[in-house]
Structure formats: C-alpha cells, structure tokens
Amino acid sequence: MAEKLTPKEEALEYHISKGEFDTNGKTGTLLTKSCTTQKELALAYSPGVAFPCLEIEKDIEKAYDYTNKGNLVAVVSDGTAVLGLGDIGHLASKPVMEGKGVLFKSFANVDAIDIELNTKDTEEIIKIVSAMADSFGGINLEDISAPRCFEIESRLKEICNVPVFHDDQHGTAVITTAGLMNVMEMSGKKAEELKVVIIGAGAAGIACGNMYKLLGVKKITMLDSKGVIHSGRSDLNEYKKVFALDTTDRNLEDAMKNADMVLGLSKPDLITTEMVQSMTEKNPIIFACANPNPEITPPKAKEARSDIIIGTGRSDYANQVNNVLGFPQIFRGALDVRATKITENMKMAAAKALASLAKEEVPQIVKDAHSREVMEFGVEYVIPSPFDRRVLVYVASAVAKAAIEDGVARVKDFNLDAYRTKLERLAQHLDGKI
Predict the structure, then answer these.
(1) Which secondary-structure segment (H or E) carries 219?
(2) Residue ranges of E strands in 87-161
(3) For the chain, which residues make up each domain, given as ranges?
(4) From CA 248, how far away is CA 219, in angstroms rounded?
(5) What are residue 195's DSSP bridge partners?
(6) Which residues does the annotation mark as catalytic?
(7) pLDDT digits (tens, 9 = 90+) for 5-22
(8) What is the largest CA-CA distance in the chain?
(9) pLDDT tens digit string along 272-307?
(10) Which CATH number fits domain 170-312: 3.40.50.720, 3.40.50.2300, 3.20.20.10, 2.60.120.260?
(11) Distance of alpha carbon 106 from alpha carbon 328, whole angstroms
C-alpha cells in the first residue's frame, strides 16, 4: 500500500510534471486554431498574419475581433501581500497567480496570464502595467499590499482603456455585501440602522467598508492592529481616516457590543463567545474570513447563541465567502461587452445577483458537492455555492447589463436575453455537458 502523503507533499506533487510531455505548474497555452498544414502555417504566421495586423492598424478596436484580447486577463502581482503568507517576493507568489488563472478558466472560461513584477515601487508598477494593458481585455491586480494597492488601482483605472480590478479589495466586498443583503431581508433590518464592525483595515477591509456605505450603512467601526480607528488617533493614513469615528470604543470587545454584523479579515480566534453574546438581539451576522482558521469557528459561535448567522472563508462550513464567486464572473461580463472599466454599479449588480441566486432552489448536483441534503435560503445558506454554475449566468449578465447602463461598454448592440442564453450554454460546457 502506498504511503499516504502529507498535505504539503500532496500539494507539491500536484504542481510537478506527471509525464514526458507535461509541464510543471498549473497553466499553459491552449491553441484555438489548427496549425498542421502548410496552408494553416501560412495563415497563422507569415504571410497571412499581415492582414489582421493591417486591419488593427486602421482600427485598434479590431484587436477584439482578430486576437485573443477580448478573452484575456493579466493577473499582476508584486508578491507583497500573498494570501496569509505576507510579503514573500514576486516569484514566490507565482503559484498563487497561476492558481488565479486556473479559477478564471474553470469558472468563467476566461484565459489568464500571470505576471509577477520584480519591483515594489508604486510608480514603476503603474508605468509597467499601463504600458502593457492594451494587450489584454482586463487587468486583475492581486496580492499587492495596502495602502499602495489603492493608489495603484485608482491611477491605473484612470490611465488604462480596459478594466482594472484589485480582487483582494473588491471580491470580498461583493460577496459579503450579497450575504448582508440577504440577512437584512431575513431579519427585516435596514442598512442605515446597522452597526457594522470590520476587523482589519487592509485592502479588503477598506473596500468592504466602502461598499457597505454604498449599500446605505452609516455606522462602521473599523479596527486595525492598534485597535479601533477613532478620531483621536494621529497615525492614520488617508484611507483609514475616512473610517475614523468619534467614539469611546477602543478594542474589539467594545466595538462588538450591539453590533449587527462583524467582518473578520484578520487573525484566528480573535472573537470570543462573550463578544458574540454581546451583539444585537436579532440575527447578528459574522463573516469570519481569516484563513485557514477564522476569527471564530461556526460551532463555537453557535454555542454562544442559536440565532447567529456565520460564514467563513472555508469550504467545510456553510456560507463560504469565496472570491471565486466574484472575479471570474465579473470579468466575464466586463469582457463580453468590451468594458473600459468596472464601475461601482457593476460591483453592486454582482452583489445583488449573488443575493438573488441564494434564494433559488439549489440543484442536487450542488448539494452533492457539499455532501448536504438540505440547502435552502436561510441562516445556513445566505451566500450561493461556488459549485452552482448559475453563478456565471447571474453575475456575468448583471455586470454586463450594468456596464451598458453606465456607458462604459464598447458593445452597443446588446441583447440581455440572448446573452443569458449564451452564458447558460457556457455553464453547461464548463460542466462537461456539451
């Protein structure tokens, strides 16, 4: 009997070539046109390739017609904020960036190329990415540390003619906003009445806070490593200052009293049962997203009180906050209407689409994937499953529609019903049914 591999050994084995014609890593190049005859060679390269070149020279929009630009995303990182690993260097981040490419292709049929930059200089990153952006249909910034990531994304969005999206910020924001919408509906609460606590003032925490504000949330208490971000502090950067409250709360225990929602983007085991018990009386919600171990586990939170609604970043618990519910489908919709940027309206449309899907009947294949007999809208299901292929249809179509409405789409002749039908066919293709 073969000796069982450790998780580390299994992961390392997964990334290594398994055969003579296999390659190391997780991604490669897939040809979309045949090149097996002299004629096809002449079409693929010289002399045939000159004709699409000349068409693009006359009209650069033709690049969407004659090249892979319209289905290609660059996943760009400097390796300064990788998963739970921190600043590990640009090349050490490559397995993660390749992994993003796997998710793009698997969940939305988007091609992605990972690009790891050997620089931490903000100006240099902006210069490099802006110079190469036109080769792609979109730019996915990844694992770039805060606060640099805010300026990098903001300036690139202004410079580039294609969508620039920092998933570490907006992916978590879109998905937790969807969950929050559904909890508000279940409990009859209004956004402007909520007290929200965010543990962690990095890229995701700031973005989540900004999106909750767009939803209508007025009171957000944010904490960083030094405690509550309040108006008496003099050590706040411009992004944290926006969330500085005039409050006597100084620590997490203070902040969580009467809170309606807590978002954890920090470290394991920060939330105690006493803190959970101090939250609001009706249906408090916790998204404990520290990985691999959350700020509090669902079993421990439910021991504290039975009405808690809790989600984590882990797949072995209900209500998983998984960014794969967002970025592949958001880019799919943006690419298909040739969007120039991803707007706040497009992100909110994605969140609303996810919230809506969670209320639909869950297919048996999704239940089987989770080994759960019961999956229906309620405290154990406020966020849809990543294994539900309808996520692609709901989110991509909502994003595409919002792009058209916001006037950032190059495609003008857009039929939403026809596009949803196309996405349904794509979802079936990704499932291997066609």
Answers:
(1) strand 219-224
(2) 111-116, 138-141
(3) 67-162, 170-312, 329-430
(4) 14
(5) 219
(6) 45, 100
(7) 999 999 999 999 988 888
(8) 77
(9) 999 999 999 989 999 999 988 999 999 999 999 999
(10) 3.40.50.720
(11) 9
